Amino acid sequence: GENVEQHPSTLSVQEGDSAVIKCTYSDSASNYFPWYKQELGKRPQLIIDIRSNVGEKKDQRIAVTLNKTAKHFSLHITETQPEDSAVYFCAANLGTYKYIFGTGTRLKVLA
Amino acid sequence: SQTIHQWPATLVQPVGSPLSLECTVEGTSNPNLYWYRQAAGRGLQLLFYSVGIGQISSEVPQNLSASRPQDRQFILSSKKLLLSDSGFYLCAWSPRGGYVDNQPQHFGDGTRLSIL
């Protein structure tokens, strides 16, 4: 079946360094890719998304890149801060109504 | 603005007991509604989704069921809970209409269900 692979599963960076999380999707018809941040015990919250008609989108310290040919997309966080510590999920749409999520990356920003 | 309410926040139930989790959305009409389950330290597993009243699509065969009695109400139920039903249950909604496959999902606060 269709899936989204996400790597790495855990990532530790020093405060101020950059963090990169990568996802690969299998459904070539996917055209919308959101990223969610989930703090411990909380709801996932949308932090950024990208549509297939663009290759990159940036919002302050967060950016997402998309390579449709290779079917992968990445989340980039620059100048990381302790409050960036959380679990991050990528997702891709499957058809009109469904989304499939990656398995998550636990990011730890070390002060 | 749109808000999503989900309750209860936590629930402890014995094996074999019934279940009813409720989710309501305010501030929008005709939303797409979703139920996900998240096992500890794991990703999000889609259980059910609904694109309209009485329209339910099941993704994973199991002893859970879902219903949508009203436009902005989504209910997750079980007649007899299993130990494996433990987890964090999340309701979500997304807007309907237009480029529906380009709309983000917005999640409720979740229900942490423990089966004893």
Describe the protein's architecture and organization.
- The complex is a heterodimer of chains A (111) and B (116).
- Chain A has 111 residues and is mainly beta.
- Chain A contains no helices and 11 strands.
- In chain A, the strands form 2 sheets. In chain A, strands 2, 4, 5, 9, 10 and 11 form a 6-stranded mixed β-sheet that branches. In chain A, strands 1-3-8-7-6 form a 5-stranded antiparallel β-sheet, with no helix packed on it.
- In chain A, strand 6 (56-59) and strand 7 (62-67) form a beta hairpin.
- The mean pLDDT of chain A is 94.
- The N and C termini of chain B lie far apart (38 Å).
- Chain B has no helices and 11 strands.
- Chain B has strands spanning 3-7, 10-13, 19-26, 32-38, 44-52, 55-58, 64-70, 73-78, 87-94, 106-107, 111-115.
- In chain B, a hairpin with a 5-residue loop joins strand 4 and strand 5.
- With 116 residues, chain B is an all-beta fold.
- In chain B, the strands form 2 sheets. In chain B, strands 2, 4, 5, 6, 9, 10 and 11 form a 7-stranded mixed β-sheet that branches. In chain B, strands 1-3-8-7 form a 4-stranded antiparallel β-sheet, with no helix packed on it.
- Chain B is globular.
- Chain A binds chain B through residues 31-32, 34, 36, 41-46, 49, 51, 89, 93, 95-104, and chain B through 32, 42-44, 46, 49, 51, 57, 59, 90, 94, 100-110, 112.
